[in-house]
Amino acid sequence: MNSKNKVFKKGVSVALAIATSLSLSAGALVMPLAASADATSDLIASLQAQISALSAQLTALSGGSMSSGSSAKCVFTKSLTMGMKGDDVTCLQNYLKGTGHFTYSGGATGFFGGVTKSAVAAWQSANGVSPAVGYFGPLSQAKYSSMMMVSG
User: How many domains in the chain?
Assistant: First the structure.
């Protein structure tokens, strides 16, 4: 068996693990209403971390070719919204710039303001993420991850 087949089979295994995690997370999110918001938030954060780790593993197994072109694959560990700052926001902005949705002339700033919110909303609308309100949370991150897997 050549090394490309091995990498492909490993990639398929990791993709199946990600799909399993996503399906389990969907079931886990349909918890009784009595469950606390903190427990749900912790569960979502844990699942996002697992998805990010599996995505990084898939990227490594594929030789780093999971990028969509202009920027490296982002790894998100939390939801992103107005007023946030950091490398994860910068990565998101660079990705959105590559898709044509982030058009700020100053480039990526690392600050999630109105321009980034509008860019996220436009990306969500273009990619079937609803509601398209400019909040880059679990639904948007799952869509982003699935798009990164397909583009490889």
Answer: 1
